[in-house]
C-alpha cells in the first residue's frame, strides 16, 4: 500500500517533496510492524498512521491543484487508500472500539489537513474523496467481523465429554442391535473363518490385527495344530506385502516362522476399511496352487464385508480400554490424594497421642498401639490397591512380566514365597485381552494373600495366541471360610473371563489350598520350540 500511494502521489503532484508524507507513514507504521501484539505501541502507531494520512490528503490535494493535474481537490485520492491499512488491522484483531476511534481521528485529521495544510476543505473533490474513504473505513471497521462470521461458520465450543457421551450412547444402541449383540473382535474373527471355510476349506487359517509397534496379534485361528505365524511387518513375507499393498498375496510357502516341508499354498487377504488396513486373513493348504484367481475373488468378497464389522469391534475395544484405564487412574489419584493422606494424618495423630500419654496409662497405650497397627495395615492395603490400579501390561514387556511384577510385590508384602513358570510366545494377544487377563491374575493373587493364609504361591502363565492360560495356586486353607469379599472377587473374575470369551476354573489343590485358572481359546500345541522359564523359589 505504501508503494501504491507513493506512486500515485508522485503522479498527481509531480513534486518529489510530497513523498515526505510517505516517509512519515513508513515511520508511523513501524510500531505495528515490529511489535504487532503490543497493547500500547501498536495502537499508537495506527493512530499516527491515520493522522499522517489525513494531513497528507490536504497537502497532496493542494499540490495537485497547483500542478494543474487534478482540480477541485481530487488529488486526495492518491493517499487516502492508506486509511484501509490501520482500520483493517484493528478489525482483524477484533478491536471495534479502536476502529471507531480511528475513524473519528481520521475525520478530524481530514478537516485539519484540508483547512490548515492544503486549504482545500471546501473543494468538492476533497470532500467527495474524504467522505468516500470514511464510509469505506466504517464498512471495514464494523462489517469485517460480521462478514467473517458469515463466510466462515463459527467453531462450536469444545465439549468433549458431551460429544463423547453422545457417540458412546449411539454406539451402545448400535451394539445392542447387532446379531448376537456383540462387538468382540475374537468372536467376529472366528465367525469370519467359519464363513471362509464354506468358500474354501483350509488346513490352517488365522485372522490377525495390528497391535502397535509394527507387530500383529492373532485374533482367531483354526487348524489341527497351532501355528507360530510371522507377526512382524518388516519381514520378507506375503503378510508384510499384503499389509503394505492392501492387495491379496498368494505364495507357495507357509507364512509361519518355522518352515514346512512339502507343497504348501498360502493366501493373505488384507482387511481394509476405507483407506486403512486393520487386519489380515491367512489361509493355508498343504497342496500346490490351492488359490487360483477365481477363489481369491470369492474370498475377497467375503472379507470386504467383514472388514467393517471387525473395525467397529476393534474401535469399541479401544474406547472401552481407554475409558477403563482413565477411570482406574482417576480412582488411584483420588485414593492417593484423599483417604490415603487422611489416614497418614490419623497415624501421626495416634503417634502424638502415644508420645504425650502420662505415666501409668498402660492400658490406653496398648489400645493406641493396636489402633496404630491397624491404621498402618490399612495404609499398606491402600498402597497395594494403588499399585494394582496403576499396573498395566507394558507394550514391550508382555503379560508375563506384568503378572510377575505384581505377584512379586504382593508376595513380598505378605511374606509369601512366589514360584513362577512362564511359557510366552513372541506373538502377543490383543491389548484389551492382556489387560483383562492381568486383572484376573491380580484378583486371584490378592485373594490368596488376603484370605488363604498361604505360605507359597504358584503362578503359571502360558501364552500362545490366541490361546492363553493363567493359573494361580496357593497352599492355604481354600474357600472353607466362605468370605463374602472373596466370593465377590470370584464373581468379578468370572465376569472378566466371560468378557474375553474365556473360562474360569476354580479347583481345590491337594493337599491344601486353591487353584484359580483362566483359559482362553483351545489347548496350546505341546511341541513348542520356545523355552519355558521357571523362576527360582522366592524370586
TrEMBL record:
InterPro entries: GAF, GAF-like_dom_sf, HATPase_C_sf, HATPase_dom, Sensor_HK_TwoCompSys, Sig_transdc_His_kin_sub3_dim/P. The keyword Phosphoprotein does not apply. Residues 432-524 form the Histidine kinase/HSP90-like ATPase domain. Pfam families: GAF_3 (PF13492), HATPase_c (PF02518), HisKA_3 (PF07730). GO terms for molecular function: kinase activity. The chain crosses the membrane at residues 18-35, 47-66, 72-92, 99-120. CDD domains: HATPase_UhpB-NarQ-NarX-like. Keywords: Kinase, Membrane, Transferase, Transmembrane, Transmembrane helix, Two-component regulatory system. It comes from the Bacteria. The keyword Transmembrane helix applies. This is GAF domain-containing sensor histidine kinase. It comes from Paractinoplanes bogorensis. The lineage of its organism: Bacteria, Bacillati, Actinomycetota, Actinomycetes, Micromonosporales.
